[in-house]
Amino acid sequence: MLFGCATDDEEEDTSNLVAELTEITAEFTPELLWEQSTNKGVQHYFSRLNPVVAYDKVFTAERMGEAYAFDQATGKKIWEVDLSDIEGTRSFFDDRVSARISGGGIAGYNMVFWGSENGIVYALNQETGELIWQAKVPGEVISNPALESNMVLVNTVSGALVALDSQTGEQVWKADQNVPPLSLRGASGVVSSSGGAFIGNAKGELAVYIADSGQQGWATEIGEPSGATELQRIVDVDVTPVVFGDKIYGISANGNLAALDMRSGREIWKRKYSSYRQLTVDGNQIFATDEKGHIYALNRNDGTEMWSQLSLTNRDTTGAVSVGDYIVVGDLEGYLHWLKKTDGSIVARYRVDSSAIYVTPVVSEGLIYAQSRDGELQVIKTPE
């Protein structure tokens, strides 16, 4: 028999181990207000589907195609539609084919909008769920659109930024972006401000397009290729930029967190952080979750690091949202964690269910709307 053993010089690689949760001294107990199930959720697929709070309702969807509207106060279901058979043509004997809903949503113009990996954008009446229009775009829609000047602005995986008429779904303009041969599975959402549509791209840039025409304005590189292989040199900016005042903030999957002048694209400051998770700007602080699940607070004006929280390593920590004196993140085991804004200490914990919180929770009027991979939607209050 042969036996193998590690030498003293060989150390076990622990860089990818998931951190175990440690005991905390809870300062309060989060309160569940209501919960609903959204069928099968997103399961194990990559998804950025998020709840949308608008018109006194909570809109949400699951990957197969079920879209819902719930009463914001009570959680009572108002309507449900099946986007996989939105025109009602499937017979009793036909197999259900997934609509592959993966982008959005966003609400406005008395409608709620969802996108799919099939390259279809759906516009539903927010009161009834009735289909107003559906439009085909060139590429998968796996991030949030934006609304601007009576248009729906959609960024696709194929590099097409498309403006659709919000009332008809007809294409108003299209801007094509070059996508490198190798890039991450992702696409930046669109943020609109002051007549511009701001996005990140797979070349490691933040860029702006004139919303009325689709003409490109400035483009500023914030990613920094490094490493010997093409995989190591990926610099995608897949996080939706954040506009705050006259500045715009973005982060690359391999590069930097940067603050730019919104009008000129001029770099104001840049710091070495890498992420594909949502950024949050709150007052004079920026909260960022890096690719290892570490959470950082930085000074918004100069990028100086104020604190770091490293105890959630490799827990697929979501981006942070601001709730009063705290920020809240989710993780791969369905937990929400409350961190103090002042020092990053974890002061409360709550479990939504045993599947992951896969997307940054949504906050509206101080309430947290969290959705798990298995389709559990919960509304949680932070005690004052």
From TrEMBL:
* Bilayer-crossing regions: none
> Where does it localize?
Cell outer membrane
Q: Which InterPro entries match?
A: BamB, PQQ_b-propeller_rpt, PQQ_rpt_dom, Quinoprotein_ADH-like_sf, WD40/YVTN_repeat-like_dom_sf
Q: Which SUPFAM superfamilies match?
A: Quinoprotein alcohol dehydrogenase-like (SSF50998)
A Pfam entry, by short name: PQQ_2
Got a GO cellular component term for this one?
cell outer membrane
Residues in domain Pyrrolo-quinoline quinone repeat?
64-309
Q: Which GO terms describe its biological process?
A: Gram-negative-bacterium-type cell outer membrane assembly; protein insertion into membrane
- Highest taxon, organism lineage: Bacteria
Q: What is its main location?
A: membrane
Q: Which UniProt keywords apply?
A: Cell outer membrane, Membrane, Signal
Query: PANTHER family, per this entry?
Result: CELL SURFACE PROTEIN (PTHR34512), OUTER MEMBRANE PROTEIN ASSEMBLY FACTOR BAMB (PTHR34512:SF30)
Q: What does this protein do?
A: Part of the outer membrane protein assembly complex, which is involved in assembly and insertion of beta-barrel proteins into the outer membrane.
Family according to the record = Belongs to the BamB family.
How this chain assembles, per its entry, is: Part of the Bam complex.
The protein, known as: Outer membrane protein assembly factor BamB
Q: Give the organism the record lists.
A: Thalassotalea litorea
Query: What lineage does UniProt assign to this protein's organism?
Result: Bacteria, Pseudomonadati, Pseudomonadota, Gammaproteobacteria, Alteromonadales
